[in-house]
Amino acid sequence: MQASDFIDFDPAQARLGQLLFFDPILSGNRNIACATCHHPDLGSADGLSLGIGEGGQGLGPDRTAGEGADRIIKRIPRNAPGLWNLGAREVETLFHDGRVSVSDIYDNGFNSPAQEWLPGGLNSLLAVQALFPMTSQFEMAGDPKENEVAGAVYDRIDAVWPILAKRVRIIPEYADMFAAAFDDVSGPMDISISHIANAIAAFEGLEFQSYDSPFDAFLAGDAAAMAPDQTEGMQLFYGDAGCSSCHSGPLLTDHGFHALMLPHFGPGRTRQWDTIVRDTGRMAASDRIEDAYRFRTPSLRNVALTAPYGHNGAYATLEGMVRHHLDPKAGFADWQPHMAGLPDVPWLAAADFLPLDDSLERARLSARTDIAPVALTDAEIGQLVAFLHALTGTASVRGRLGRPGRVPSGLEVPQ
Prior knowledge:
Elements: H1 11-21, H2 34-37, E1 93-94, E2 100-102, E3 110-111, H3 125-131, H4 137-141, H5 148-153, H6 160-169, H7 172-181, H8 193-207, H9 214-219, H10 228-237, E4 257-259, H11 283-286, E5 294-296, H12 318-326, H13 328-334, H14 346-352, H15 359-366, H16 378-389
Helix pairs in contact: 1-8, 3-8, 10-16, 12-13, 12-16
């Protein structure tokens, strides 16, 4: 990979986006930021199987579920994905179920949950994606009884964004920065949610570019860049183990959707009118039965930094996830709750693993897999894991702008 493989984001907009990314002002109750669940210190994710969103306290594995009336009432249904290289030009689909993609279906360039109500002026798929956590009750919006942002979601999804844009534009420091970074902004009233999303996308697209791993150095001709076990793991990855059938290309993903027979737990991302607690994956976005239980193939760059693994963080370790890929049926049958990484939430604990006891749903889920079993020795599995560590960037993983010491709203920056 090289710089030309990425969208040309504006550095001034990225500096503005850095502040917005870390500023809780974009959440309904002003208590959670994008960076809370996608923190640079945690590999651009949160280190949890299923995140603790609005109402929680702290960061990463130490994040707690809050207290009293403000405590969480639901875990985030899916694992927070890493943000590495999402600004690459080849990326045309985002989210585990692909519900945001490049498309002309609504005559606005994108297929998204906002459908025809998506704001105009969004300059990238990454900018489109940035809008939707703001509308989610359990991620950033909060309860409808608590603030006007959450209440607006129940009117129509696009009613949320003008409220948030107004919050930003009335802060003089932000207004000045937008005027300096965007040619079509001359004053506070010109600032729209699209400018905000484009700025966040510019930050994410530049901050999380990473293609300076030992693997890249090896491909560039440095035979000593990878250790012997990593080289042997690479040969397995592209050979007998069959990993590259899905994890191919510069980003090590085919951008497709595959069923892995991962065990289900947590609240599920249940489709509208569905009475069963479950997550049908791609089918929830496509409404096609053949897409049931299929999830987007993630890029493997910096994968060693983004545990836990799977759309629901079912495995806390790379080795666990590799072993599941090699024999999904056995992995599904043998999986135990301790293999995930769920912070203790006493008032949710009784329901966390109830879906595992639904025999009919287990049968449906375990009947779907797109991966054929592969037999490898323990030594070969160790070599595969070693190769996956060779995909970790070097200087790039430290970022460019990092975490700001303060944000213009004066709210607390996620530490």
